[in-house]
Amino acid sequence: MVAYGYQVAGNDDPLVQMLDDIFRIGSTITVPGRYLVEFIPSCDYHPPPGHSTISEAIVFVFFSA
Known about the structure:
By secondary structure, the chain is mainly alpha-helical. The protein has helices at residues 14-29, 53-63, and strands spanning 2-3, 6-7. α1 (14-29) runs antiparallel to α2 (53-63).
């Protein structure tokens, strides 16, 4: 299959794997009710160090199999 001039080799293609990881991370961090800040809005102003959506996404990308 060719998309935007890129020949996709199959499901083992690195670009396909990267996009799969991106969509998996996006669906994981956007689950409603996952974060305390949704119930207590003041938590948005005082997050504990190292516990943000971005840091969780980075950990998920680099340490997930």
